[in-house]
Amino acid sequence: MKPWRFILLALAPIAAFRAQADPPPAEPARERPPAIAQWEDGLRTLVDGARPWLVQIACHYKVDEQKDGGFSFANEFSGVVLSVENGEVYVVTVGSAVRGARKVEVIAPDGNDFSAETVGLDEVTNLAVVRFDPGDAKFTPARFGDSDKVRPGSFVLALGNPFGLEGSVSNGIVSGVKRSIGGTIQPMMGMLQVTAPINPGDAGGLLLDSRGDVIGVLASTFQRASAYDDLEGVFDKFLEGFDWEKFLEKVKQKKDGQELLPGDLKSLVEKLMNERKKALLKSRRNDLLSVQQLGAEGINFAIPSNLVRVIAGQLKANGKVERGYLGIRVMPLENALRKHLGLQPGRGLVVTLIEPGSPAAQAGLQLYDVIMEVDGKDVSDVSSLAEIIGGKKQGDSVILKVRRGQEDKDLSAILGKK
After folding, report:
1. How far is CA 180 from CA 5, 70, 219, in A?
2. With 70 as the cut, is the pLDDT of residue 12 above it?
3. How far, in Å, CA of 308 to CA of 53, rounded?
4. Average pLDDT, the chain
5. Tally of CA atoms within 13 A in the half-sphere of 154 that contains its CB
6. What percent of the chain has pLDDT over 70?
7. What is the per-residue pLDDT across 57-92, written as a single tens digit (0 to 9) for each?
8. How crowded is residue 337: how many other Cβ atoms within 10 Å of its Cβ?
9. In the Cβ-directed half-sphere of 6, how many Cα atoms lie within 13 Å?
10. Which 3 state secondary structure label does DSSP give 87?
11. CB atoms within 10 A of CB 361
């Protein structure tokens, strides 16, 4: 056999192995279905347009300073660029971020961080505004939409920084509008309920509609436990403001010249109250944990953009929020009374109390008047009325359309200050 034939036979297994090892040629890229391609491209356009509006908020806290100097920790939230004015950038975020913070930092989308200061915090809406000097950096204010036009079933995108993962995007739909959530002391009213996930770090992020407008600021998950916080606050305020001397004098009894109550009654009662507080808080905490263990995924909330603009505007201008005051109590109409008055379902609130000398009394409002509109906006529930009045300030004038018996009246009221 000739030598070259031996060489070919020796190389044949190698060639066969290489033929098996080499991957097959790639198939030509498949075209996306036109409808899906258009949908995906549209989503990316919305996200890319909104990313510059989103920032990260890093807050540093120090607690228990009375005990061995205390300890420090940090937490991360999200924020939305509100405006750029006079060389300063204003950012709106959740109040729970900056409450008690010793240091606040804003981290831009490019990773640069800036030292910020809190301009104002509103406890009622849990909104806060911070500001900082951007130097030569450029920031783009968010474009806010009209949250009053949002309807259940509307598609939404949520942008935030969950667990420090910058610029994360999720999607969902609006499950409900004008939701009231939170505790019994100061519930949050007028909230948007969405299915888009909201995780720790997302609070303060932005909620986009299909137009790419911001229709809400993502709310913190702490609001699910706000009833727990309210309960703790009630006990604390009770113990702090309790007049012990007056209490002891009132309950003190004597028999044969001797006091029947121990001298350390104050410390005894205070100890009992604290023990009761701990027991109730533990019970409430367990209740909340049970609710979460049962599963509350897909039930998340955002503060509507129209309310954000009003509150953030006041915080930016004055550092605080002044709310209008009408001086009434109302309740929803019973169906029978609504039908008797000829009102559409879900419209109207009946006046059950008018404070003497209040703006409502001066405007001529009477008990059992039915408020149907305020400044041309339908009043469907207590939260809608509170949102309209609370969004105005002392001295503002409002027109109340009421039904008294079978007659409609327009009453003008000058709001006071609560």
Report:
1. 88, 37, 13
2. no
3. 15
4. 80
5. 23
6. 71
7. 999 987 655 555 555 788 899 999 999 999 999 999
8. 14
9. 3
10. coil
11. 16
Phi-psi region of 100 (alpha: psi -120 to 50; beta: other; left: phi over 0): left
Residue type, 279: A
Place of tokens 């205390």: 70
Instruction: Residue 202: name the closest of 80, 84, 89 by CA.
Output: 80
**Which residue do the tokens 């954000």 mark?**
308
Q: Specify the amino acid at residue 396.
A: D
Nearest to 369 by CA among 311, 312, 328: 328
**Cα 171 from chain centroid?**
18
Integer Cα distance of 306 and 309 in angstroms: 5
309, containing H or E segment = helix 305-318
In whole angstroms, what separates CA 71 from the centre of its chain? 28
| Per-residue confidence band for 223, with pLDDT thresholds at 50, 70 and 90 | very low
* Beta strand segments in 311-382, E: 324-325, 328-332, 349-354, 370-374, 377-378
- Asked if residues 301 and 181 have their Cβ atoms less than 8 Å apart, the reply is yes
pTM comes to 0.69
